[in-house]
Amino acid sequence: MVTPLGDRVLVKRSEAEEKTAGGIVLPDTAKEKPKQGEVIAVGSGKMLDSGERVAPSVKKGDKVLFTNYAGNEVQIGGEEYLLMREDDILAVVNK
Amino acid sequence: MVTPLGDRVLVKRSEAEEKTAGGIVLPDTAKEKPKQGEVIAVGSGKMLDSGERVAPSVKKGDKVLFTNYAGNEVQIGGEEYLLMREDDILAVVNK
Amino acid sequence: MVTPLGDRVLVKRSEAEEKTAGGIVLPDTAKEKPKQGEVIAVGSGKMLDSGERVAPSVKKGDKVLFTNYAGNEVQIGGEEYLLMREDDILAVVNK
Amino acid sequence: MVTPLGDRVLVKRSEAEEKTAGGIVLPDTAKEKPKQGEVIAVGSGKMLDSGERVAPSVKKGDKVLFTNYAGNEVQIGGEEYLLMREDDILAVVNK
Amino acid sequence: MVTPLGDRVLVKRSEAEEKTAGGIVLPDTAKEKPKQGEVIAVGSGKMLDSGERVAPSVKKGDKVLFTNYAGNEVQIGGEEYLLMREDDILAVVNK
Amino acid sequence: MVTPLGDRVLVKRSEAEEKTAGGIVLPDTAKEKPKQGEVIAVGSGKMLDSGERVAPSVKKGDKVLFTNYAGNEVQIGGEEYLLMREDDILAVVNK
Amino acid sequence: MVTPLGDRVLVKRSEAEEKTAGGIVLPDTAKEKPKQGEVIAVGSGKMLDSGERVAPSVKKGDKVLFTNYAGNEVQIGGEEYLLMREDDILAVVNK
Q: C86 — phi, psi (to 5°)?
């Protein structure tokens, strides 16, 4: 597995994105539609001007919504993941 | 439901936007016309350079005006919502 | 009525803009000509990096000049208003 | 008359710009040629990140040089003025 | 060898990028696919506004993922290296 | 004469730019070639975020090199000058 | 000779860039290939927001790698030099 750097977050995109367990449906036609996935790993967080780091607002296991263009794709063990910045994550889906 | 991150706000767009109860009418023809909606959920607020967060200026239940291009669309339970930044909200409609 | 957020200001554009009581005439032909109006409501002011807010330099009732492209249009009670940032206001017309 | 806001400055452009009393001649052909004028009114000055304002470096009566594209035009009492930012002023002409 | 300056990092791109020991496979078709490599040398780190430097989050020997367009190519002793900014590194591959 | 504002510097471009006394020759063909001139007057210096000003690194009489596109042209007493920002000055020519 | 201002550095580009003593070869075909040279003079260093200057990370005599588009060309005593910002320097070549 990999450890994201700084404010990067490793996300596994949800398989069936059209209709999730929590009832969240993402529109097909929206030009910039958010995507859903699960947080797999987080970095040490964003660095402030003071040099301190702020712990990420998401944690391993969180179901999250993110923008369509968020992140870079990587494949680990044959599966596809996304490495995105914490700021690309729009919301956490409540259980 | 979802919990917005940081300065994100979850907004339910008003059904009948042409003429609201409060008498606010939004022009059809304006190139960048604001939209009206209701705040459903807010995040922890914008992060300052110091790492502190500032509580959002809007709260659940607020009727708000926002710019036409604000936010990303999501569907929850078959209904469409917007996830926008607090700064995209122009004003709160007084009751 | 509405309450502007942060550094937003609600302005009612002057009806007869060509020639005002104070004698200020705005040229027709200028490519980026300022507009005149009256402040109807102000927000809590711009937020500093420290999280503090600075009270707006304009107040309800002020006659103001603003740039041609300032703000978003809204209609309240059948009348058209502008929601602009305080920084889009160029000057206050003295009484 | 008007009171400029913040770092805005009200300037009356010099009538005869080709040749001034101080002997400053501005070239016709320069693509981005500075203009000359007189400061009529200043605002409270630029706001720092701390919220404090810095008194403007120019004052009423100063003859100033500014860039060609500086400011917005307004007409007061039938005469044309410019509302520009203090940073658009290049230099003060010495008496 | 060379010593990177500031937040620069010297990286040796992995020979066989399609399939690594750790099982990470990078997709061929992704428009902006990350690359994998090994950190050869790091600089003194990014400078904060205060003038202090923050030690890099990666160190010599780290296997890292980086964006496709990261860095400048140099050849040392006949081999090709990349000089990139620490912020271009997305994640560290765990051993 | 004029007094530059803030970080502005008044420079008199050297007449014979192809070959100077100090032996500095500026190439004709370079796309963005620096120019040489003499500092005639300086402003009070660049303002920091704190509101303090930093004394300019150049002074009256300094021979300086600057970028090709630096500054705005003005004519004083029939001679052409440049009003540029201190940051457009690349180096001081040693005597 | 000249004294660079602020974070500017005067660099003499290496004559034989294809193959250096240290074995560093720079590829011909790279679209944005770094260049090699020797530091001839440095400025007082980059200014922080506080007004303090940070001593440059390179010194006279350092062999350095820099990006292809770094700096402005000047000729001193018939030889060609580059005036670049310290941030355009990628790495120091170890002796």
A: -55, -35
Cβ of F75 and D26 within 8 Å? yes
User: What separation in angstroms does the CA of E7 have from each of A93, B44, E71?
Assistant: 36, 31, 12
In Å, what is the CA distance from B56 to each residue of A64, B53, B62, C17, D51? Answer: 21, 9, 12, 37, 21
The answer to whether the beta carbons of residues E35 and E28 sit under 8 Å apart is: no
- The residue among F42, F65, F67, F95 with the most chain G CBs within 10 A of its CB, best to mutate, is F65
Tokens 């002409």 belong to: D93
Q: Where are the beta strands (DSSP E) in A1-95?
A: 2-4, 8-13, 24-25, 35-42, 46-47, 53-54, 63-66, 72-76, 79-85, 89-93
Task: State the pLDDT at residue C33.
Answer: 57
Q: What is the distance between the alpha carbons of residues C30 and C27, in angstroms, rounded to a whole number? A: 6
Dihedral of alpha carbons F77, F80, F84, F89, sign: negative
Distant-in-sequence, close-in-space partners of E78: CB < 8 Å, separation ≥ 6: G23, G25
Q: Which of G4, G47, G80 sits opposite F54 (nearest CB)?
A: G47
Give the count of beta carbons closer than 10 Å to the beta carbon of residue G49.
13
By C-alpha distance, which of B17, B9, B22, B2 is closest to B83?
Answer: B9
What is the value of ipTM here, to two decimals? 0.82
Alpha-carbon distance of G58 to G60, in angstroms, equals: 7
What is the pTM (predicted TM-score) of this model? 0.84
Higher pLDDT pick, C16 / F76: F76
pLDDT tens digit sequence for A10-57: 999 986 545 555 666 655 544 445 689 999 999 999 999 999 999 999
**Cβ contact G44–F24 (<8 Å):** no
Reported as a single tens digit per residue, the pLDDT across G39-71 is 999 999 999 999 999 999 999 999 999 988 889
Neighbours of A, requiring at least 3 CB pairs below 8 Å, are B, E
**Proportion of chain F in helix, strand, coil states, percent, rounded to 5:** 5, 45, 50
Chains in contact with F, counting 3 or more C-beta pairs less than 8 Å apart as contact: D, G
- The residue type at E36: Q
Dihedral of the alpha carbons of A36, A42, A47, A51, in degrees to the nearest 10: 170
Judged against a pLDDT cut of 60, whether residue D30 lies above it is answered with no
Neighbours of B18 (CB within 10 A): 9
How far lies D90's CA from each of A39, C79, G53, G79, in Å?
53, 43, 26, 36
Give C-chain residues touching D10 at CB under 8 angstroms.
Answer: 91
Residues of chain D with C-beta less than 8 angstroms from the C-beta of C65: 2, 74, 83
